[in-house]
Amino acid sequence: MTGRVLPYEVHGEGPGRALVLHNWFGDRTSFAPLREHLDGAAGQYAFLDCRGYGEARDTPGDFTMEEVAADALAVADDLGWDSFTVIGHSMGAKAAQVMLLDAPGRVRSLVGISPVSAAGFPLDAETWELFAGAAAEPANRRAIIDRTTGGRYDDTWLGTRVERSLNRSSATAFRAYLDSWARADFHERVRDNPVPVLLVVGAHDPALGADAMEATWLRWYPNARLHVLEDAGHYAPEETPKALAEAIEAFLAA
After folding, report:
1. Any stretches that span the bilayer, and where are they (predicted)?
2. If you average pLDDT over residues 2-20, what whole number do you get?
3. What is the pTM of this model?
4. In principle, which of 113, 137, 187, 188 could form an S-S bond with 118, CB 3.0–4.6 Å?
5. Structural contact between residues 33 and 242, judged by C-beta atoms closer than 8 angstroms
């Protein structure tokens, strides 16, 4: 950690506090559709860019989940937040769990959106090549997005997300993060953690849907609950932002 606070922006002025961490394919702008449906009178949501993404695209780093966690805690310090919820989308949820381990007295609850578990994301050799090659090959990125949304979207929708991921992330960071979120396994360290957890998954996500949650998160977090969005795949903040906002706000209000 260098002490530099990464770029972030806060939505809302209410008493609730949440740090929001983006997925592998998106910077903080990927949450724009979700932000439109969040009640700013109820809470404050701090959306930040990981190193190598968005406004931090040229920020050097190791590009690990540990680094993301440290950077996010630095943002919380900058905001003067002693305690908060962490909302993580996909790889962002892996980093959120590192934050829980590093600052257990500060993380009040977790929200995982199609979340990568503390055990990582095992991939067979062929799929690993697809994911690893996505750093340099736009076609690989398109194939992954198409696969994880159930093959339901047209070329325009897929192309827009591929183009954003290419323009708003560095290939070096994109490739390096894969090793950290997919391969690192620290699930024994989170086993039986009592923190409240909401898991929101899309019914059309074949990779990180309900079955994956049953096999991982729901085994390790005794106070975890599962919410399935019937019309979403892996990218609920963009596919079903209103339904996702409602699920998050109901959880935080409770």
Report:
1. none
2. 89
3. 0.97
4. 187
5. no
